[in-house]
Amino acid sequence: MPGIDILSLVQTDTEALRLRLQTLTRQVATGKIGAVAGDIAPQLARAQSLGSAMSRLDTYGKVIDRTLGETQASQTALKQLQDIATQFANTTAIKLDPSDTQSLAFAASAAKRALVQAGQLLNSQYQGQYLFGGTDSANPPVPNAEGLPTSGLATQIAAAVATLGGGNATSIDASTKAIAQSDTAGVTPFSAFVSDPATGLAEGRRSIPTADGQTLPFGLFANRNADTASNGNTTGSWARDLLRGLASIAALTPAQAAVPQDFRQLTSLIRDGLHAASDGISNEAGALGLTEQQLKTTQDNHAAMRDALKGQLAGITDVDMASTLAALQQTQTALQASYTVLGRLANLNLTQFLR
User: Fold this and answer.
1) Mean pLDDT by 10 residues, the chain (355 residues)
2) Global pTM exceeds 0.90
3) Burial, 78: exposed, middle or buried (Cβ in 10 Å; 0-12, 13-18, 19+)?
4) What DSSP string runs through 63-104?
5) N or C: which end of the chain has fewer CB within 10 A?
6) What does the alpha-carbon distance between residue 32 and residue 30 come to, in Å, rounded to a whole number?
């Protein structure tokens, strides 16, 4: 009958309005177009692609964050190592005087303490990983830092220094350089891994992925330079230069002071080696600083890209809150009117409807 048909139509429209009201209410509460992926079916593949890209950028950002923490810890260690090299090059070594054997003893004692400190700094860690150990980051690159003053390196350098006399300062300097350059077990203070030509000496620097298909090297080594070349009276490694210089000062005794001219020549060469160490460390820190700048720039670029992708994803998954609130209000009004019509229709009997 016509009345029944009208009632059925109004009921159908009312149910549709009620469902629409539920959808709009949920959208206002969540800010999302749909509760499940299927609600954005036409744009689902695009949304998933944007989400994956954002996830990758988040991962790169976390990796860069951790690496920046590691490079900052490395910079702190490098600064302290450079302070040691600079102090002994510009202060301690300059004051070495063959006529002042008492000060000589103090300098030798200070050098032994500095040897231990330098070894400990080369064993610096960040979150449980050794910063100067290459890929062998779980083990110290200087296994016995506290024993450096009596190590094979120090003992052999002391034996070479003990032969000073007769104008042989230059040959002693060459001998101490060769000793410091040695990777022979029992001579080198460095670990077997970093000293092995097949492992530590052959490997490249540790690096991290910074973007799809891109990596950036940042790792440092205890026994060789990572990103710079040392100049001057050098072994080729700022760390070896530092240990060599300190061990040489620690080996000086009144016996060497008894040959003043040779003593002065040798201590001058020692100073040159320590200057090479200081300059090498400074250059290494500078190169690492450039790497840090690259990492920060990459991180900023990732953050900007993620914001852009987030905006694109929001255009697919998020509602326009202003228009959704307006639609909610209109739907509430329409539903209320529909309920009113239903109420009136329900009160009509057949006779009243047919009049």
Assistant:
1) 64 71 64 56 72 91 96 98 97 89 92 98 97 96 98 98 97 98 98 96 95 94 96 98 98 95 97 98 98 96 88 64 68 73 66 52
2) no
3) buried
4) HHHHHHHHHHHHHHHHHHHHHHHHHIIIIITTT--TT-HHHH
5) C
6) 5
